[in-house]
Amino acid sequence: MPDTVSAQPEARASKTLRDTWRALSLYEKFEQAVVLVLTGVIAVIILSALWNLILRVALSLILADVFDPTDPVVFQTVFGAIFTVIIALEFKRSILVVAERRFGVVQVRAVILIAMLAIVRKLIILDLSKTEPGIVLALAAAILALGAVYWLVREQDRRDREAGLVE
Fold first, then answer.
1. Based on the structure, what is the number of domains in the chain?
2. Cα dihedral angle (148, 151, 155, 156), rounded to 10 degrees?
3. Residue 65 pLDDT more than 70?
């Protein structure tokens, strides 16, 4: 009896998924297929980046005994790799939002956050002693501009929610 009860929610979910799929237009089905393929590709990239990070840290700790987190080069390398994984995870999550049909297109807010993460990653791995001041200024201006755009988008979303235009 417990097997039948536990199977019922799965059967209902499967039926709802089939009904939702049938209701999609041809282009929406194509969009969903592309999103699923992209999700798979990004998952492989995330696993590869994570594996590379684990190997790099493990080999540095065990074999070379040169892993000194206080060394700026080691810090920049390791945290640059960590941010790469985080950026890929955030990118995958923004695509999954589309796959779940919560929104028709990738949200601007998610793209802005991913861009901000990428710039922060660049600032972490940057060797400031060898970087021209113009580059640092450009990265700072980009972060400032992205922050302003993020704030504007968030404010517009808040106003739309208050007006009852979106859920």
1. 1
2. 60
3. no
